[in-house]
Amino acid sequence: MKALKITTFNVNGIRSRLDNLLAWLAREQPDIVCLQELKASDAQFPREAIEAAGYGCLHFGQASWNGVAILARDSQPLEVRRGLPGMEDDSQSRYVEAAVHGVQVACLYLPNGNPQPGPKFAYKLRWFESLIAHADTLRGADHPVLLAGDFNVVPTDQDIYNPKSWLKDALLQPESRACYQRLLEQGWSDALRQLYPHERVYTFWDYFRNHWPRNAGLRIDHLLLNPALAPYLKDAGVDAWVRNEAHASDHAPVWISLGTRKRR
């Protein structure tokens, strides 16, 4: 396969942060982009501006809330499915899957689940179970498959600045973490943790209580590689500079780079 840079980014409102998104695309030039929390219907999606920047786009929008999209540099994503299998009654736009540059890419925005306990947390766990079931059908494919997005789960205490401040949050509940671990046990590789097993890496900094200046972050945006894709992983990181821009999202883009040859 060819060398690729693939990213996931919870943009937190694509229309209000379009300038930020376009500036990031121009500077980093990723080949594939998974976007979450568009907060825009399909009719409101800024397709013309994104296409003018050199990206084909596939979007599954929703007015005011949720919404996911896959962008492809100098190409058009080929839709595989929209909506998560097992969640056919779901009214929220949270999952889209496409073939892009030789990779099957699933872009997801997993429910937050707060407040918990309650119906929102039950919905989160039901959605997670459906994701686990579908991911198991993708994991064993003989072609490269990537699960990318905002999973709304902090996998371990290493992935948060201070777990004591978030003990009641749905992102840290044992059930949420157990679901994420079950994904990994299917054979998916957590790209950032595979390359940086002992470092504190954050992808989200809350707007409140001065979290960004204090680097009081969480890692909730993940890129998971199936066994056919994992050997091509070359590098990974976070474009944290995006979080420091004016009118920034509370997330920063997370990226991986893939080599043309498998690692030995």
From TrEMBL:
Cofactors: Mg(2+); Mn(2+)
Cofactor note: Probably binds two magnesium or manganese ions per subunit.
Biological process according to GO: DNA repair
Enzyme class label: hydrolase
TM ranges: none
Keyword Magnesium belongs to the record: yes
Keywords in alphabetical order: Hydrolase, Magnesium, Manganese, Metal-binding
Record site: Transition state stabilizer: 152
Site (Interaction with DNA substrate): 251
Alphabetical list of Gene3D superfamilies matching this protein: Endonuclease/exonuclease/phosphatase
Site positions for Important for catalytic activity: 221
Active site as annotated: 109, 150 (proton donor/acceptor), 251 (proton acceptor)
CDD domains linked to this entry: ExoIII-like_AP-endo (cd09086)
UniProt similarity note: Belongs to the DNA repair enzymes AP/ExoA family.
Protein's name according to its UniProt entry: Exodeoxyribonuclease III
Provenance organism: Pseudomonas soli
